[in-house]
Amino acid sequence: MNGEVSSDALTAFAVFAEHLNFTRAAAELHISQPALHVKVAKLARTLDRPLYHRSGRRLVLTPDGEAVARFARDHDERLTRFLGELRATPPHQPVILAAGQGAYLYLLGPVIRDSLPARLRLVNGDRSQTLAAVRTGRAHIGVAVLDTLPDDLTTELLASYPQTAILPATHPLARRRRLRLRDLAGAALVVPPPQRPHRIALERALRAAGVEWSVAVEAEGWPLTLHFVSLGLGLAVVNGCVTPTAGLVSRPLADLPDIPYYAFHRPGALDDPRVADLLTRTRTHLASPPPP
């Protein structure tokens, strides 16, 4: 290291790391963009480590940058809690929850409704973004579907749901209580784009079952998927927590694995009683998943 690291530099970098945009971060800090550039560059020189790099049009934190951002946020929270205890006043910083669109729409609504707006802040992103938000300290708790449990985070299974076929209530298959993949033979399916995890897993399962199918339309997110099914464009396979809209029904697919939703956080995060309370309330709300 080439000097001392100031709390001001850490605070500035934490805000920059959240936005990864100098203009927005400078506006939040109420300083000029050149001034923020100077703070971040000086911090990098002091630590003798590159903290971010450019990838196309995006700024991306380096592994060292992620570590510094995590430390900066932890430092800020510890200081806030300490000052609150010293002054006998509760901390004002909210607990931050990260999750994807599906989790927010179909799982976490009761948790959000029961939380005071001043006590809970939400971050939205896909699985990789949610994991990154927790790893870098941008979020205290993440909720997502995990196929592989990360070694560096503490995980807890919240609920598992069967995979279900979504189809119009008038479709012949709607008369059955349960389906198998072979029942979808020849169907046109509404599916995510090719590189999405759900699409990859579904294609693999259909191929293993010897089921021929076609792409009706590619859709991002369950609401758009349901909308296309309701328009008669095709059938869909979704996580069982997804509630069918009017005119549609869901039927469990017996030969597909259940989908597990996990909560995850950094070791030691539950030392903060606010974070522990959020996880407890989330666990309680999801203890009895709705029937498919």
Description:
- This protein is of the alpha/beta class and 292 residues long.
- Helix content is 39%, strand content 22%.
- It has ten helices and twelve strands.
- The strands form three sheets. It has a five-stranded mixed β-sheet, with helices on both faces. A five-stranded mixed β-sheet has the order 9-8-10-7-11, with helices on both faces.
- α8 (197-208) links the parallel β8 (188-191) and β9 (214-218).
- It is elongated and about 70 Å long.
- The chain starts with 6 loop residues before the first helix and ends in a 7-residue tail after the last helix.
Strand order of the largest sheet: 4-3-5-12-6
Distance between the ends: 56 Å
pLDDT averaged residue by residue: 89
The total count of helices amounts to 10
**Sequence stretches where pLDDT stays below 50 over 5 or more residues:** none
> Structural class of the helices, strands and pairings?
alpha/beta
Report the helical percentage.
25-40%
Return Rg in Å: 23 Å
Shape: elongated
State the major sheet: 5 strands, mixed
Q: What kind of assembly state do the chains in view correspond to?
A: single chain
Helix-strand string: HHHEEHEHHEHEEEEHEHEEEH
Work out the strand percent: 15-25%
SS elements, strand count: 12
